[in-house]
Design a protein that fits this description.
The protein has 283 residues and is mostly helical. It has 11 helices and 6 strands. The strands form 3 sheets. A two-stranded antiparallel sheet has the order 1-2. Strand 3 and strand 4 form a beta hairpin. Helix 9 runs antiparallel to helix 10. The longest helix has 19 residues. The N and C termini lie far apart (58 Å).
């Protein structure tokens, strides 16, 4: 029998979710997930650990109304909460900022006050680690200030979000078309896309600028976007910007990428966000 596309998609989703539930590891009174089934260690992070699994479980519960997913999310939140104080990295994908986002999601969707309190505690930890400029020497989205800004904004802490973007106005490098930033202090290649480059910083500046009603941050975001647009190598009917300039030297890195991290899939998200926050006629 041939099943319809929606039915088939739901069946595939359920299969993936069942695999996730079976892959969970019991830790104290909670659950945690490793990067792969071959890993002995579990991590609490958003990129490749438990915090990244929690949003999937929440979406699954909302769609399928299967309380097993909600229960797994609650137990997963407990293991993330237990790791907040002792987890050293602070950034969005690999640190406490991403853990705060996951915990806040469990609080909002399931009404779990313990997860909400843990999200607040994670934000307090981030605030205590701020050294006057940031949390490390990175400017980008994955582990740097831009990601912390977006995490704070998602968690409802506008003051922390603004603190996280304070360094960008005075560290922006003027270019012929706009501005750009280092990926980290002292790094030579300038990257242009979402994960480690200008567009990830643009996204954070625009989001915080809109939330705080700060035109200076939005204008800086637009200057960063203008620099990236000026680098288009696909002509007037396309959009393709190099991975980095000067080109980062590595046998696996080609001049152009198409995915979220370093290519057009991620670029589209940044430009779509800008289109939503800007008036049709700036004049």
């Amino acid at each position: 029998m041939i099943t319809s596309a929606p039915d088939n998609a739901e069946s595939l989703a359920v299969g993936a979710l069942e695999w996730l539930l079976k892959a969970a590891r019991d830790v104290d009174d909670g659950l945690a997930w490793p990067d792969t089934l071959a890993d002995d260690q579990v991590t609490p992070i958003l990129y490749s650990g438990t915090s990244g699994v929690l949003p999937t479980l929440l979406d699954a519960w909302r769609y399928f109304a299967d309380d097993r997913y909600a229960d797994a999310a609650l137990r997963g939140a407990r293991s993330v909460a237990d790791a907040v104080e002792d987890w050293e990295p602070s950034g969005l994908y690999t640190g406490v900022a991403g853990m705060a986002v996951a915990l806040r999601g469990v609080h909002r969707v399931l009404g779990d006050t313990a997860a909400g309190a843990s999200a607040d505690r994670a934000l307090d930890v981030l605030r205590s680690r701020y050294d006057g400029a940031g949390w490390n020497d990175c400017f980008e989205l994955i582990v740097g200030n831009a990601g912390v800004a977006l995490a704070a904004l998602e968690c409802g802490d506008l003051d922390l979000a603004q603190l996280a973007v304070d360094r960008y106005p005075h560290t922006a490098e003027p270019t012929a078309a706009g501005v750009q930033w280092e990926i980290r202090a002292g790094a030579v290649p300038r990257m242009h896309h979402m994960s480690h480059g200008t567009l990830g910083i643009v996204y954070a500046l625009a989001a915080v600028g809109r939330a705080a009603d700060r035109s200076d941050l939005v204008d800086l975001a637009l200057a960063g976007a203008a620099d990236v647009v000026s680098r288009n190598e696909a002509g007037p009917d396309g959009f393709l910007v190099a991975h980095s300039d000067p080109q980062q030297q590595h046998e696996k890195i080609e001049r152009h990428s198409y995915g979220w991290c370093h290519g057009t899939a991620g670029d589209a998200q940044a430009f779509r966000f800008l289109s939503h926050i800007l008036p049709d006629d700036p004049a």
